[in-house]
Amino acid sequence: MKLKKQVTVCGAAIFCVAVFSLYLMLDRVQHDPARHQSGGNFPRSQISVLQNRIEQLEQLLEENHEIISHIKESVLELTAHVDGQPVLLPYRTPNGSWVLPPESRPSFFSISPQDCQFALGSGGQKPDLQMLAVASVLPFDNQDGGVWKQGFDITYEPHDWDTEPLQVFVVPHSHNDPGWIKTFEKYYADQTQHILNSMVLKLQEDPRRRFIWSEISFFSKWWDNISTQKRAAVRRLVGGGQLEMVTGGWVMPDEANSHYFAMIDQLIEGHQWLEKNIGVTPRSGWAVDPFGHSATMPYLLRRANLTSMLIQRVHYTIKKHFAATRSLEFMWRQTWDPDSSTDIFCHMMPFYSYDVPHTCGPDPKICCQFDFKRLPGGRINCPWKVPPRAITEANVAERAHLLLDQYRKKSKLFRSKVLLVPLGDDFRYDKPQEWDAQFLNYQRLFDFLNAHPSLHVQAQFGTLSDYFDALSKRTGIIPGLKPPGFPVLSGDFFSYADREDHYWTGYYTSRPFYKSLDRVLEAHLRGAEILYSLALSHARHAGMDSRYPLSDYALLTEARRALGLFQHHDAITGTAKEAVVVDYGVRLLHSLVNLKRIISNAAHYLVLGEKESYHYDAAGPFLGMDDMRLNQDSLPEKTIIKLDTSPRCTPSSGLGQALSLLVNSPRVRVLSEEGQPLAIQLSAQWSSATDMVPDVYQVSIMTRLPALGLSILQLYKSFDSHSTLTSSVHIHLHGRDLPVRPREVFPVRIIPATSDDFCLDNQHMQACFSGLTGLLQSVRRAGEEHRLSSEFLIYGTRSAKDKSGAYLFLPDGDAKPYAPKEPPVVRVTEGPFFSEVASYYQHVQQVVRLYNVPGVEGLSLDVSCLVDIRDHVNKEMALRLSTTIASEDTFFTDLNGFQIQPRRFLKKLPLQANFYPMPAMAYIQDKQSRLTLHTAQALGVSSLHSGEGGQCPRAICNWLQRLLEPRTHHCSQSKQGQDNRPISFPSLLSHMTSMHLNAEVLAMPVAREKPAPPALRSFRPLSATVPCDFHILNLRTLQAEDDLLPSAEIALILHRKGFDCGLEAKHLGFNCTTSQGKFSLGSLFHGLELGSLQPTSLTLMYPLGAASPNSTVIHMDPMEIATFRIHFE
């Protein structure tokens, strides 16, 4: 009561802050261990009895584990709702360190021992080809191979096909980039629509003709603009096997920078469109243009029930080696797979490119003569100066034999007598004349070849699946199974080089601003999907869906497609022209604004205490934006909450315990939903190294957030500063004459010229910095000091014709230290919840923040960099971390945020060849420690020396976290260096750190000032905790028959993470238990009853078993991604 009086006396505005936990990985998991049997010398009857007893004990232990988990959860629930406890404030010790009061809620970390076995397991049979081992033994000598310059001379015997004739499938295709030199819209208007219109006409002229198409972004736009009759014709062509939709994603995604959430999302968007509009399910993958290939893609395609795939851009030395050993076709298996459940059949194109000169055989001079678009008189010709000739009765025999020679030579590189010959290039078949030239001339060649049995060849047009089906038939297997005698491969195909030392490693960091914006949009899309699905389900349950803005679904679809479009291999890569990049940026920003609106609309409904009072007003939304971007290339500006206005509310969203808001007054008080005062850290907002922003203050609060939910905080203006703890600031000027204008609220100490080193600490670690540079020098953790220094470097580019660019990284040698004209200004801020060091150089600003809070944030160092090197020509900036970790030549990078790939520094390769993609994390380790670098955007990384990690150049604005973890010897999982098993996993803490970094907190001020806002309540959607190695990847409302409206069905996509138990996990400050892969979904969502649960393929095109409302307990293996079609009662 006294508290309420104080609020009334202050007469201040009250604010509510709802905090939505975008990323979830909280609380429980387990997986079924492999039970090894050992016969020994015991009689079988005794062994059987022992096995039964052991299994009974295991069952009892499992039940006991579950009971303890439930008890812990109950304790959490009880302690979570204890009201009226007095506020305990952090305090400062005599040595200057801040100490937090003990937490009111206990935390625990309890991992089932069985769940550690996956990372320790020996796996199944070793693959025939392991890419790490292949790269280690290849010479990479780039010898001249003759007409096949990057290969070798191919010979054959004329009678090689006498007993089994050669079967040739020529596959016409047109590669359509959804943006590159022209924008998406411009390409569609100028070329793509004409390609597709001609396709319908020309395929119908001859039933023997075939064509494949992959980019659904273009196809759907064309579909919206064609007649009902033309749509029917397309369906007939697909049904008749003349037209095949390959892969079927929204785009052909980049595989280096894309995050697996976005890769899956664009695949679902494409597949759902195909199923709804054409009724077709893709069977084969087609990836001719991504600049290197990730092992994540075959896994996703296999989970989507595709059985085969094709890739093209692989290092020319690897292609040569695979061709020489006839290993260009293989079963691609995941490194962790103990059997063959992840296998997918893969065809690697052997030659330089996917254009016609490099697809019929090894000699491009001859193959170019069979690209009939280049007939004399056209706009393009053959660089080898021998033009094609139209096929006539007079020359067909000679031309057919010349082409057959190429076919035969190419077929000698493969293990079967079935041959794939793509026929196409970028934006081909855009004019009817080309359709006629290619199809009529090739048909004359086929007719001749097929009419002469002595040639032992059968040639025809085919689709990609026609080829794979014929191959399966020849080898006597069902499509999707391993053909006898074909190799099994694991690993990936980075980094890519197309010739000489031209390594395509520059695009890992090109246009970094947009790589960052991509990840921001992804986080917002996931948050919007989940909140929209929950809000709409609750509104339907309450019979209020007619009052909910269903129109938000159209905005959600648009955002899915904008994110999907940006996964294109010339978009997120940064390799498009400037005008095209701006077009992508406008699309991303437009969708980002719309997603914020969807999130705020959903949050509005979910936090209302009285749902009947809900009223949607498009013109005057209840909640505002958390931040604003003025333009597509602008950095975000956080919303400032005005404490001196009428009462309003401000919901926010994110994962973690530290929440920061901007307010317009230092006289601020924060209460929990129950009215309990919360301790806050008040800090300045800076516009430069020495200038504070007037009348803007940063308020930092420590709070626990409900998983996937919304939490209410109250902010109001108050002169009671009992719970306000003000940050202190030291500014090291290093002799520079700069004005410092401190404000009376914040004590600022000016240090004109000293260069003494200094340290910051929290309850877990101490970080020490150079007083001269402001850069990190070392970290002390658990009583042990580890050197962890950082420095900025500059790479130049070579002076020859070929220079570094959007695609290539071609440095002029080793990096040189960054040498600014003046020493940096170093600003040190210290407070109870975070302390930070901001170093301002001429071209880069770096902020290293140490959080003093329990949980993920307090266990790592948070680093942000803002880089501006526009006045540098042909220069690139990099960040190097140096440690005492004895990592030797091995380091580890992630693939698409999904899995870890061990790497090895190869001295035989040029410097640029040793850089790899880092979409989410990279680490180095030895027997004692592991250092992980987490990133909030795609970057490139290498470890050029033992103990070093280098972030690739070009980063304009990025956020990183450095996590140092001690390793325990008794269960260290990394087999690299022990039996050379190329497999490694992050720790659970590392998984959570990565998700936390990619889940930015959103703050949405209540926009309405009058009348006073209604009562708001926290929204806690989950009635049970989720195992902490389970991740709810998405909760995606599916489309109704009307494109613009949602259906009652939702796609629940789960990912069970594989993790390493061999890293120390003590006092982590968050709750975590595991359940051996079991997860009960029946009562997971509070207030929503699960009506049906249908396991499906990844993209929902194939049901996997019958839907059952009774059985709602699922089991997933580590690393598995699974999709469920669910329906709430």
What is the tally of helical segments?
18
Mind telling me the CATH class of the largest domain? Alpha Beta
Q: What is the H level of CATH, i.e. the homologous superfamily of the largest domain? A: Glycoside hydrolase 38, N terminal domain
Shape: globular
The portion of residues assigned to helices is 10-25%
Report the sheet with the most strands, covering strand number, pairing sense and barrel closure.
11 strands, mixed
CATH architecture of the largest domain: Alpha-Beta Barrel
How many structural units, i.e. domains? Answer: 4
What is the average of the pLDDT values?
88
Tell me the CATH topology of the largest domain.
7-stranded beta/alpha barrel
The strand order across the widest sheet is 29-28-35-36-37-38-47-44-43-40-41
Organism: Gopherus agassizii (Agassiz's desert tortoise)
Pfam families: Alpha-mann_mid (PF09261), Glyco_hydro_38C (PF07748), Glyco_hydro_38N (PF01074)
Transmembrane segments: 7-26
Cofactor: Zn(2+)
